[in-house]
Amino acid sequence: MDPILEVVALILGFLSWIMVGVAIPNRYWKVSTIDGTVITTSTIYENLWMSCATDSTGVHNCREFPSMLALSGYIQASRALMIAAVVSGSFGVVCTLIGMQCSKAAGDNYVLKGRIAGTGGVFFLLQGLCTMVSASWYAFNITQDFFNPIYPGQKYEIGEGLYMSWASGTLAICGGACLMFSCKFGTEEKSGYPYQPSRGTVYSASASRKDVQSTYGRNAYV
């Protein structure tokens, strides 16, 4: 396994894990486009856990969603996927740290280290897929309501929390792919063995002369 590729994959996976942890509590997953006055509300924004409002004077007021079962299905699924992404990223970081060549956790068994690092790459891929599906599903519902001319409720636009989630998913997928490809290249490089001639194919000069004499007879030599 290439150690440089390991370090790059670890950095990408760790950054993606940090970003998904920051994106979950971010309040700006979807933002309204209302421009109000001092009396009316100017901005409404929501995430997976709460809904907030702020007026033109800068006063913020947030309330958590009262019941999880009363929420829309895509919000519940997005919550579960984001939590699964955080858990998968945690396992990915731990497995990658153990499986790196510079780590002493698994001793000098580089085959075992390569497998552990490859497992970390799988966890990073799972993190990226969960994050991308969650953010894309949430954004799909926002755009569907926004472009629906007969939608009676408040229309929202995509907030910065979704962009952060997409960036986190992209980094996680890149880090997991680097780990898996590095493990593959490492096994291919170690698959060849140096050529060692067999002892049975070595003949001495006297043995070869006896074979020639027995085949052609003594009269073949002058």
Automatic annotation (TrEMBL):
Transmembrane segments: 7-24, 80-100, 121-142, 162-181
Mode of membrane association: Multi-pass membrane protein
Classification via PANTHER family: CLAUDIN
Domain of life: Eukaryota
Identification of the protein by name: Claudin
UniProt subcellular location: Cell junction, Tight junction; Cell membrane
Organism field: Triplophysa tibetana
Transcription regulation among keywords: no
